[in-house]
Amino acid sequence: MKNVLIVGGAGYVGGAITDLIQQSNYNVRVYDALIYEDSFRKPVDFVYGDVRDHDKLSEQLKWADAVVWLAAIVGDGACQLNPELTKSINQDSVAWLADNYNGRIVFMSTCSVYGAQNKELNENSPTNPLSIYAETKLNAEKFLKHKNAIIFRLGTLFGVGDLYSRIRLDLVVNILTVRAYLEGQISVFGGDQFRPLLHVKDVARAVLMNLETDHKGIFNLARQNVRIMDLAYQVRMHFPDLIIDHTDMPFQDTRNYRVSAKKAEETFSFRSIHSVDEGIEELKYLVETKRIKDLKSPRYSNQAYLKEHYEELMIEKFKEVEAA
Ligand SMILES: NC(=O)c1ccc[n+]([C@@H]2O[C@H](COP(=O)([O-])OP(=O)(O)OC[C@H]3O[C@@H](n4cnc5c(N)ncnc54)[C@H](O)[C@@H]3O)[C@@H](O)[C@H]2O)c1
After folding, report:
1. Are the C-beta atoms of 272 and 199 separated by less than 8 Å?
2. What pairing do the DSSP bridges indicate for beta strands 194-199 and 224-227?
3. Of 11, 66, 101, nearest in space to 209 by CA
4. Given ligand 1 and candidates 74, 92, 175, 198, which is best to mutate, with the most ligand atoms within 8 Å of its CB?
5. What sign has the CA pseudo-torsion 37, 7, 197, 77?
6. What is the pLDDT of residues 182-231, one digit of tens each?
7. Integer Cα distance of 265 and 133 in angstroms
8. Phi and psi angles of residue 320, each rounded to the nearest 5 degrees, phi first
9. Which of 43, 73, 156, 268 is most buried when burial is the number of CB atoms within 10 A of its CB?
10. Which atom of ligand 1 is nearest to the CA of 34?
């Protein structure tokens, strides 16, 4: 196996995966519609394209021995902005991939498919998608059931994945760290809800480990399950003057789940190597050295950015561009 196509590779997770796979002597090509970016300047082969442009994507699939599929509208709020658009990108394009590609597929799903449940969940636990995001990801998983595909249900990611790609500041560890820096105070609503967490670079390692294995099916990937309140205290270890403002108000986001990543550990010896403290320090360094000019810019939040720009992604508009 030589050629790896990373679809959606210009994003947060894609940045880490692209670098690691490239360093590992594969031929890497990124296919991405640059939704959040003005440019893609990483020295990696690049094709500008939308996953809904089947002719263009077909050409690239002919080249690829393996496809890492990351392209999606990501996050509950971002997906809710336009459910039809979300469905066509997150779900329908994966159905098309399943019908039109027979090579190795590494697909990113999410632990959000578990919704809110009290016990520790494994890959056989019932799913309970509470959002369009989780629902479309779960449906996408089903299309890949009989393919040569490994599906990772990722926990909430954190940390810095690479030096080029847009960092996401809408993910819980990253958000809390930035707020600690900017405001010296963080508000925690409820706080008892659990999230499984994982460093973005650990995802890249899991992908690399599985490009050429024949492991198939669903694998949870997480380092640890953390209560949001405990995470706030952990952030305070890095910002000793931080004030934590706790209110019992139910958190708007009702997700609450703990997952077991034992299957990945037992099947391909996956163990995360990057800690939450490491991720907090990476973010702290970024903000303290002022490497992000405007931390409040919508660019760093999928929902805030798409709220202003989603018309650019509308299917009709996409078709017009194609016809021109
Ligand atoms: N970041 C997390 O915490 C997390 C957690 C669970 C699962 N995931 C999954 O990992 C994958 C990557 O997430 P991310 O955090 O890098 O998100 P991201 O928003 O940073 O990146 C998504 C990328 O996909 C591209 N894209 C979106 N729609 C496209 C289209 N129609 N055609 C071509 N390219 C398109 C975007 O331009 C962007 O580069 C997603 O599938 C997501 O569901 C992420």
Report:
1. yes
2. antiparallel
3. 66
4. 74
5. positive
6. 999 999 988 888 999 999 999 999 999 999 999 999 999 999 999 999 99
7. 27
8. -60, -45
9. 73
10. 37
Given the structure tokens 């030589």, which residue do they identify?
2
Measured over the CA atoms of residue 169, residue 264, residue 150 and residue 131, the dihedral's sign is: negative
Domain that holds residue 172: 3-323
Pocket mutation for ligand 1, best pick of 5, 6, 12 (most atoms within 8 Å of C-beta): 12
- CATH classification of the domain holding 281: 3.40.50.720
What type of residue is 158?
F
**39-51 pLDDT tens trace:** 999 999 999 999 9
Question: What HEC string does 45-85 produce?
Answer: EEEECCCCCHHHHHHHHHHCCEEEECCCCCCHHHHHCCHHH
- Asked whether the predicted pLDDT for residue 321 surpasses 60, the reply is no
d(CA 177, CA 200): 16
Question: What gap in Å lies between CA 320 and CA 13, rounded to an integer?
Answer: 30
∠ CA 75-76-78, rounded to 5°: 65
Which residue type does 279 have? G
Taking alpha carbons only, the member of 146, 55, 142 closest to residue 94 is: 142
How many structural domains comprise the chain? 1
Q: Atom 40 in ligand 1: which residue has the minimum CA distance?
A: 70
Total residue length of the chain: 324
Q: Which atom of ligand 1 is nearest to the CA of 198?
A: 3
Q: Is 133 helix (H, G, I), strand (E, B) or coil?
A: helix
191 three-class SS: coil
Q: What is the pLDDT of residues 133-179, one digit of tens each?
A: 999 999 999 999 999 999 999 999 999 999 999 999 999 999 999 99
State how far the Cα of 35 lies from the Cα of 42, in Å rounded to an integer: 16
188, amino acid identity? V
